[in-house]
Design a protein that fits this description.
The protein has 104 residues and is mainly alpha-helical. Helix content is 45%, strand content 6%. The longest helix has 22 residues, at 49-70.
Length: 104
């Protein structure tokens, strides 16, 4: 687990993230209202590769649906949670990564 709001290294953050993902495998969200009606959340969870594939398919479906109105050069983007690396392959510090994004 993370140590409150104390800073951690990239490796510690990645290890915590992987532990979180492993811990959430095969877990389904369940909701119940005051009448006792239940509904379960969708699988896979939002960080699973299958979920990003599903979201990408929805994006492409949206593009097809509005391409007549906006033309073939409809700009779209999909954001990912990846970090840049230094020339020697080490992860770029988070603050430097943010500076690079803001400068682009």
């Amino acid at each position: 687990a993370l140590d409150g709001d104390r800073p951690v290294t990239w490796r510690e953050a990645i290890d915590c993230w992987r532990d979180y993902i492993r811990d959430k495998e095969d877990i389904e969200t369940a909701f119940e209202d005051t009448s006792g009606n239940r509904a379960t959340g969708s699988k896979p969870h939002r960080f699973a590769p299958e979920y990003s594939d599903k979201q990408y398919a929805k994006l492409k479906d949206l593009e097809r649906g509005i391409s007549d109105e906006y033309g073939k050069r409809l700009p779209t983007a999909m954001l990912t949670f990846t970090a840049s690396a230094t020339p020697d392959g080490d992860p770029l510090p988070a603050a430097d990564h943010l500076d690079g994004l803001l400068d682009s």
